[in-house]
Structures are given as C-alpha cells and as structure tokens.
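Feature request disguised as a bug report, sorry. It would help if multi-protein outputs had a clear separator. Right now it looks like this:
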Amino acid sequence: MLNPDYRDMLSAFTDAGVEYLVIGAYALAAHGHPRATGDLDLWVRPTPDNAERVMTALLAFGAPLTDVSHEDFETPGTVLQIGVSPRRIDILTTIEGVRFDDAWPGRVEIEVEDVPVSVIGREHFIQNKEALGRPQDRTDVERLRKDENG
C-alpha cells in the first residue's frame, strides 16, 4: 500500500500525461523484491513538452515550486526533492548508465491502487544499479540475478 503522498503524485503524473519511470526501491519491489526505502524515485523524460506536463502535475499535487521552472525538467542532472524521508519524492531528469529513450520502450506497466504506474524494466534497472555501484545497488542486482539463475 502506498502512502497517500506517493499515490497522489503518481495520480497527478498520470492525469497530466507525464512520461516517467519509477526507479529505485519501488522499482525493485515491482520486480518482486521489496525492501525498505525513505523515498519514491521518479525519472522523467527531459523534453520541453514533458517538462510542461511535469509542472502541471506538480501544481496539481500542490508541490512547493518556488524557484522551480519547466526548464529544470529539460535539464540533465536536475533532481527535485519534495518532502522528507520516509515520505520524500525525488524527481530526476537523468540516471546513471541508462538513457530515458532507451528505457521507455522496455518499461513495465502496473496498476497500484487503481493508478497506472510506469516502472523501469528489469534490464535497464540492472544497468542503472551496476553503473551506480554502491553496496545497496550491488545487493539489489544480486537479488534480481538470483531470479534469472533459479
């Protein structure tokens, strides 16, 4: 069950037509391996049209947007954090080791509490985690690889 803030943000993204992928621990859970996390990570396509949709969704959600513009969501390397752990939402325009245009066709579409959700596909998730290389990322990859190897 999602906390209400996460559900509301995902619903706002869906309603606005944002092209996004859930990444991080919630993506890991969608691929069958839940683990504790303090945030929801959303990776958005960094294009002008999508940036406008992101801003529309954030306004509908009620996010504090002082000093935030649609150009931020067109710019590689942008990270917007909303709230604090354990209910923080991170919105990113780039991630390590994977291009959005490559990951989008391989996304996994799921439904969570009646909200359609786009999740990064397994192979692109693994590519991202391998590129990051942190201890938790290596553990996540090992858990997914065990599935492949039986």
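(second protein starts here, but nothing in the output says so)
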Amino acid sequence: MSSKDWLSQGTLVLASNNKGKIAEFEKLFAELALPVDVIPQGQLNIEDAIEDGLSFIENAIIKARHASRISGKPAIADDSGICVPVLGGAPGIYSARYAGEHGDDAANNAKLLENLKPLRKENQVIEGMFVCVLALVEHADDPLPQIFQGIWQGEVLEQARGENGFGYDPLFWLPELGISSAEMSKQDKNKISHRGQAMQLFKASLK
C-alpha cells in the first residue's frame, strides 16, 4: 500500500542478484540513510524470479512480490533496460538477455550494434533511452505497489567507450556531457541516471 508502514519492519529486501545493480543501489540507499537494513535477496538465498511480464512495471512487481513472498519482508525491485526507438523499443524488457544468455553484457552490446548497423546512416544519431522502474511492496499480496520510474535520454554509440558501469553503459552516449555513461563516476552517474531518477522519486515518497 502507499504508506510508510514498511519502515517499521526493520528490513527491506532488494530483489536483485545483479552485482552491478546491487553496487549502485547500495550507494544510493546509503545516501538515503533509511532506518532499515537493505538486504540483497541473495543473502537470503532467494533466486531470481521468472520475469514473464510484458513491461518494466510488470516485471518489477513480479520480482518484488517474489522476494517478499519468500522472505516475509517488504521488498523493492528494479526492472530496467535500454530502449531504442528505431528498433521498436528493443531491447526493452529483454535487455539483460538480448543475446540469449542472461547477463552477458559483451554479447548483448554486440547484438545491439549488429542490429543497428543496417539502420545507421552516415553521421546519423541513433536515439536511445535507459528506463528504470522501481516497485515497492509492503508484503507479497500488496494490492497497491508503489511505482517509481526514471528515464535517461541519450544516444547509442557505434562502438564501446569507457570502463565503468555495466550493461549497455559503454554504448550510451550523453551528448550534453560529451562522454558515455561508462566514462562517468558512480557518484556522477547516480545523480542523473534512470536509476538515480527513480530513487529520487522513492526518496520524495518518504517525506
């Protein structure tokens, strides 16, 4: 439900086993200084949920309910990815498994570049956006999950740049900054990224 009752339970389960996401969330949650312990689901031996939704929102809710049901605790889940309009929004919700195997960043990046190659004209800008949806449930059957969404606009590069971040960060170009998101520090990235935006909305809900 849309309340702060979950804060009194002392624990919030982070419904993710993705190391890159967990690292970003740990920094973001540390800045919030919540009066609860935020525990990644892996520490509770919770495996990933089956993501069979058709949207970021559906999958985020599925993951949050799954973690909450097994742990008996409130849970927050992130579903995120990159959407490229000229590809009809792909990779979209399939971003993490775009090339087939879940979490193979190099293969996913390679497939995205391959699929864009015949569509990219000389000096053409290919727009892309990172999307993050957070879903918070107080319990597994919460009828009104709280939803927080962030969208980060940018462009898709023709080749990777940068060593930081994870996922599609090396291909995500920020023209206003003249760098890729993989060339940003975690701190700077968290200020403006899709995940950072969603977390700011989450933070605002606590006031």
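Even a blank line would do. Unrelated, but nice: The chain has one domain: 5-205.
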